[in-house]
Amino acid sequence: MNDILIRPATEQDADLIAAIHASSWRDAYAHILAPEFLNGAIEADRLAVWSQRLRDRSTTQLINVACDPAGLVQGKRGGSSLLRAAWRPRRREGSL
């Protein structure tokens, strides 16, 4: 059984969330978005976005991360919509 811990995201999670977000985009949108965009600096863009979101989040905004037993962030849920989620591509194959 895979033990996954869901916890509130902190500012220290911004780099991992950004990397997961960029990786998820590359995997999910490879057939839709231009390779120049997907191979560009989307990690830096997502890091800026997530750093700001986690630093300046409102009290009504819920952002959680899913961590494996080693404490490594495997995905996030939240952002501007509670329905948005991003997972490391290999995690989407299984289930929580």
**Helix and strand string, N-terminal first?**
EHHHEEEH
* Biggest sheet overview: 4 strands, antiparallel
What Rg is obtained from the alpha carbons, in whole angstroms?
13 Å
Estimate the global geometry from the Cα principal axes: globular
Content-based structural category: alpha+beta
Number of strands: 4
Fold blueprint:
Layout: E1 5-8, H1 14-28, H2 35-38, H3 42-55, E2 63-67, E3 73-78, E4 85-87, H4 89-92
Antiparallel strand pairs: 1-2, 2-3, 3-4
Helix pairs in contact: 1-3
Question: What does this molecule look like?
Answer:
By secondary structure, this protein is of the alpha+beta class. Helix content is 39%, strand content 19%. The protein contains 4 helices and 4 strands. The protein has helices at residues 14-28, 35-38, 42-55, 89-92; strands at 5-8, 63-67, 73-78, 85-87. Strands 1-2-3-4 form a 4-stranded antiparallel beta sheet. The longest helix has 15 residues, at 14-28. The protein starts with a strand and ends with a helix. Residues 79-84 and 91-96 have low confidence and may be disordered.
